[in-house]
Amino acid sequence: MDRKVSIKQRPEATNGSAALSPVAELLLHLARRLEQRGYAEGLTPAQWSLLRYVGGANITACTVTAFAAFHSVQQGSASQTVATLVKKRLLAFEPSEQDRRVKLMRLTAEGDALLTLDPLHVVEQAISSLAESERRTLADLVGKLLSRLSILPDNP
After folding, report:
1. Is the residue at 32 inside a domain?
2. 94 φ, ψ to 5°?
3. Same domain membership, residue 126 and residue 115
4. Its pTM surpasses 0.85
5. Dihedral over Cα of 104, 68, 47, 51: its sign
6. Is 85 exposed, middle or buried (0-12, 13-18, 19+ CB in 10 A)?
């Protein structure tokens, strides 16, 4: 059964900005629900992101530096996340065939098996229940929002 979630429309301010608040609040609500789902199987959302990254990236892109850049996190934070997953035996390193100095991350058998329990599979199911045109529109709009947010200062 579909349950419609909405936020009551507020009176519009003279500058028109209040009309955007319900959309921003819906996005915040969605972000919180997604974040909560990320705490599953003893992992944090950051650890799940790393497993997903290594599970789906080209092997040559499976470095700590590439992961940090892709997820816009500091190298130190990425290194700590990697170290935790190595300690849990979900990730391992192997030298690059092109450059033995480069260490590439790979999923262990345990990491690969755990990835099948990814909590975002439920989100994928919800998205797949949308019509194709709705999925394209959602992807376009979320992409635009992320792009625009990336050019705004962190502390306006």
Report:
1. no
2. -145, 150
3. no
4. no
5. negative
6. buried
